Automatic annotation (TrEMBL):
Residues 43-128 form the Letm1 RBD domain. The chain crosses the membrane at residues 58-81. Pfam families: LETM1_RBD. GO terms for biological process: intracellular monoatomic cation homeostasis. It is found in: Mitochondrion inner membrane. InterPro entries: LETM1-like_RBD, LETM1/MDM38-like. It comes from Oceanites oceanicus. One of its GO terms (molecular function) is ribosome binding. This is LETM1 protein. One of its GO terms (cellular component) is mitochondrial inner membrane.
């Protein structure tokens, strides 16, 4: 059903709170990983990816905070997200955005696989024609 304006505001505030909370947790974990790196330990591939994602999120947080801090600037946030879709830190993404991004990646992989199959089939035909 339709939500009241109050409920929409409360939902947005919860979304921002949860996003900042998750970013704080990721930052603490990343700080521990950096500490381990500085003391000579080696990170796994998964830990390295998480560290890179958290660092990227921290760099994306700076322009995002401008929208949160400046009054009435959050009304322009959808426009900037349309122009720069990767501007939002990963902890602030909704499930629908994550699913949409996964679908795009899957479609791109399927198109690449189809192209490679066609290329290999064409090469096989050429080789067959050359030898036969």
């Amino acid at each position: 059903g339709r939500r009241s304006l109050r409920q929409k505001i409360v939902d947005e505030l919860k979304h921002y709170y949860n996003g900042f909370h998750l970013l704080w947790i990721d930052t603490k974990v990343a700080a521990r990983m950096v500490w381990r790196l500085l003391h000579g330990q080696v990170l796994t591939r998964r830990e390295r990816r998480r560290l890179l994602r958290t660092c990227a999120d921290l760099f994306r947080l700076v322009p995002f905070l401008v929208f949160v801090i400046v009054p009435f600037m959050e009304f322009l946030l959808p426009v900037f997200l349309k122009l720069f879709p990767e501007m939002l830190p990963s902890t602030f993404e909704t499930e629908s955005k994550k699913e949409e991004k996964q679908k795009k990646k899957l479609n791109a992989k399927l198109e690449l696989a189809k192209f490679l199959q066609e290329t290999i089939a064409e090469m096989a035909k050429r080789n067959k024609a050359d030898t036969g």
